[in-house]
Amino acid sequence: MTAIERARTVAVIGAGTMGQGIAQVALLAGHRVRLYDSVPERAREAVQTVTGRVERLVAKGRLDRAEADDAATRLESAETLTGLASAALVIEAIVEDVTVKRKLFAALEGVVSPDALLATNTSSLSVTELAAGLAHPGRFLGLHFFNPAPLLPLVEVVSGHATDPAAAERAYRTVLGWGKTPVRCADTPGFIVNRIARPFYAEAFAVYEEQGADPATIDAVLRESGGFKMGPFQLTDLIGQDVNEAVTRSVWDSFFRSPKFTPSLAQRRLVQAGRLGRKSGHGWFPYA
Ligand code: NAD
């Protein structure tokens, strides 16, 4: 039994890339899962997508038929925020915008019980800033999953200035019970992974801009000699150039625009051209 008991409801807000993945993880851990999106159609479609992915696990022999049938009965979309009232844990995965996220959490406080945990999947915003103004900021924290959430084990459990250590511990144990590898960290810009990864991307882009080598060569060097599963160009095409650039800008701003984190002009041009990576059919590389 996890710290958030299996029978309890997990609400996932934002039915996009991350919300769908997180919903699948919580569902297969045995929870009742409610998915909410400000565009209700997206939440309904996400239920179909997650159900389809669970079916594929059965087809691949990775999940029992009975488990998949049981999971299907525990997943539903919510048409309104009030449909999340029974949640013991809420994980937010909406647009990376501090104002929009704060507005959502302020509204949620009036919906869920005071002992429900409120978590954000933000990649780069300050957990402390997101919690400011809440009536009960002690139960607010970051649960930063990585993409694709069902496959990648790491979850950063981020404590902000006001996070109650007992709340962080409950969240840590819950995620551990889901088979993930949680890591506790404090609310510093970019947390652990997204901060350390900034120079990795930036230096690769700089080598390219200085005509040191082309993207395919740099990727190959890092994969084959560096031991990385993906090179920085491939990886940012998977993440989305817009998403990756937004995280860089956020970390850069948080460090008072330290030159160490200056965004890349070559990446800026890609974003301006709409070459966002796999999702738009073209990024550093073309995708059929
Ligand atoms: P996405 O664009 O795929 O999905 C976001 C969803 O949120 C959309 O369906 C949108 O309709 C919905 N939404 C927007 N505003 C809303 C609101 N006010 N209330 C309810 N729903 C709302 O985004 P994503 O890539 O899944 O990212 C979501 C969050 O996860 C962001 O904070 C992002 O930084 C973080 N994150 C992303 C990745 C990644 O690789 N994409 C990895 C880790 C963390």
UniProtKB/TrEMBL annotation:
3-hydroxyacyl-CoA dehydrogenase C-terminal domain span: 190-286
Keyword Oxidoreductase: yes
Signal peptide: none
Keywords for this protein: Oxidoreductase
Domain 3-hydroxyacyl-CoA dehydrogenase NAD binding: 9-187
Pathway the protein takes part in: Lipid metabolism; butanoate metabolism
Name of the protein in its database record: 3-hydroxyacyl-CoA dehydrogenase
Native organism: Streptomyces katrae
